[in-house]
Amino acid sequence: MGGNKKPIIRSIGENLTEQALSKLCDKVFLKLWTYPNPYKKKGQELCDVLVVFEEHVFIFSVKDICFNKEKEINVSWSRWKNNAIDKSIKQIDAAESWIRTQGNKIFLDAKCENKIPININLDDYKVHRVIVAHGAEQACRESSEENIAGSLAISYSDVPSSDSKEGFDSFNLDIILEELDTIRDFLWYLEAKETAIKKYDLLNYCGEEDLLAHYLYNFDIKKECHYIGTKEKKINAIYIGEGEWNDFILTEPYMKKEEANKDSYFWDELLQRTLQNALDQTLLGNADIYNGKSALIEMAKEPRFMRRELSKAIINSIKRVPDFKEGMGRKLSSYPSFYPERRYVFLQVTPVSEMDYETEYRPYRQEMLKIACGVEKIKRPNSKKVIGIGIDVPKYSKGNSEDFVLLDCCNWSEEDESYYKEQNQELNFFKTDALKIDLRRSYEFPPDKKAERRIKIGRNILCPCGSNKKYKKCCLK
Questions:
Q1: Contact at 8 Å (CB) between 343 and 380?
Q2: pTM
């Protein structure tokens, strides 16, 4: 991409409710994959927000309809439901039909002059239908003393569908999208919900936030995932009462998680800054981050708790950079991904004043980063993807720039291995006597220190070199 292309201008939403939804979607799904108020024909909107990330397509419809409390409750409810929910369903049905039949004729503007930059893979995609209904919060609160939040009660029974349908309201929209604020975390929740809807004859809850609390409470250690429902096979209906969320957020584990997650937004900021450059058409390089494979897409897949650990590791690496003498200094770090067959390398380099920054130094740093990714693959042969992040050493630089590399190792050959070994003869990545290995376990809900000690003593820790041997029998010989 180069700076001579026109910037990609996205809508911010045409009213306050759409603008609020757009900001939340930007945070969860990130700017590059979120498109508020897309159009299908001149003057005809497709939906309120469209999100496209790999095979996942999210269609959002938001309505803000005043609930008429002057009328008899059944009449008012029927009218509000028709305008706030049923019309949203029709809008989403029409949007999905357009995508299935018209493909990628989706535009950023009402004149339909500029297409969205992302293509939907029409051979393999999944639609997630999301309704946001505002306007009934006060009426819900007044209808029952137990409805302390004003959330809409929801029931699912006999709902066969291959695509998910979600509904949020004024109270819980922010809670859901701020709590599940990565693509992966949000998808996990939707997948757990779909599984529960198919499994049980009835799923009933007083508010989406209460279902979220139930989901976060339940964790299957063997499958390493949260779930909705119970492991009791005889149970065929689930009812979740009012107030689960309010109780949950006052627990110590939840508060520890929220505090620990503050570090994780370093990862988000790094991504958003680079994605904004892509939208501005100022991003350099040869990666097709809209429709191809890229380091940024892989980084965006990390769940929140893994972003926390990666951010902490990068920040610590920056703090621990030694004092370099004259010339080009460097520090290379290697980190795991949430996904077992992926790795990250983080390269910090000191710019050299004798080299022109853009034409000499930065291409050299980029080449170093590519070689570091290849050496990481050699060091851990099971890696199928290696993502490289390169920056200037912050303590030696007034400004900074970032480089990203994705090394796809699925077709790794003997020639590739020989090439990177030869290139590493001069650089000697991972061969220094100063090499340090840190062992760390990551938890979504951080345990207390006593629990951490019990876990470390009670479990065998595998060597981080990827050998599948116990640590003390491998690299610590």
A1: yes
A2: 0.88
